[in-house]
Amino acid sequence: MSLLSIQRLTKNFGGLTAVNNVSFDVEQGSVVGLIGPNGAGKTTVFNLITGIYQPDQGAISFEQASLLRLPTHRIVSLGIARTFQTIRLFQNMSVLENVLAGCHCRMKSGILSSMFHFPRQQREERAAIDRALKALDFVGLRDQAENLSKNLSYGNQRLLEIARALGTEPRLLVLDEPAGGMNENETAQLVSLIERIRGMGITVLLIEHDMSLVMRVCEQIVVLEYGSKIAEGSPEEIQRNERVIAAYLGTEDG
Ligand SMILES: Nc1ncnc2c1ncn2[C@@H]1O[C@H](COP(=O)(O)OP(=O)(O)OP(=O)(O)O)[C@@H](O)[C@H]1O
Ligand SMILES: [Mg+2]
Fold first, then answer.
1. Å from CA of 18 to ligand 1 middle
2. Which one of 25, 33, 138, 242 counts the least CB within 10 Å of its CB?
3. How do residues 20-57 score in pLDDT, each as one tens digit?
4. Which ligand number lies closest to the CA of residue 40?
5. Is the domain of 134 the same as that of 156?
């Protein structure tokens, strides 16, 4: 069954068509890669899915319901969480506080009512802390909970972003270049983390330039070039697709 469905999506920035009539489906329980040379429109697709931009044309549906015109926080509470190409953490907050910032979308009482310490508020806070610690444990950062985010290594900051996304209890996790800036060892850990995330039943859509990671973890790959979809298929099919090879040979990404 398709969890996320993208139909004929188009986004223009002035005279530039960043995403051009793109359609693809993400099956429930799968790991799907979105690849393509720099400027191909990958991050724009993510920004359209997560409500940061509205498309000029096309449809996006999640569990058969349209995401169009919904604000980002509503999309998160429906079950889509993301990380960003450029790390976006509260650098002067602790690791735990960063994950808690994501958990608030699952809390019913407003942040303001926390000043009054209603019992329900306290229960929700405790549950959020439990959820945050579980997410940190899952990515291997439990022992860093009290550290300031800015003191984490670059690779661990990327893992913290994933923990924050997991803290919102998503059904679909959208990762924009999760291995960007990671060394070989960290990338290997990331591969096993993505496999464990899939094992929990969370569907993953990821953008990545590290082809060996993409080929290892994705069962389906969608390729964009200049905003248009030029190929879609299994890792084997994509690796021998002439159009994909030509698109990559024309860039320095390899
Ligand atoms: N807010 C914006 N305003 C104007 N142009 C934009 C905006 N966002 C993206 N673009 C342009 O749209 C095109 C696609 O950009 P996008 O960031 O989606 O590419 P990408 O595939 O993620 O590339 P990379 O691999 O370098 O991250 C680029 O030409 C980019 O300059
Ligand atoms: Mg990008």
1. 6
2. 242
3. 999 999 999 999 999 999 999 999 999 999 999 999 99
4. 1
5. yes
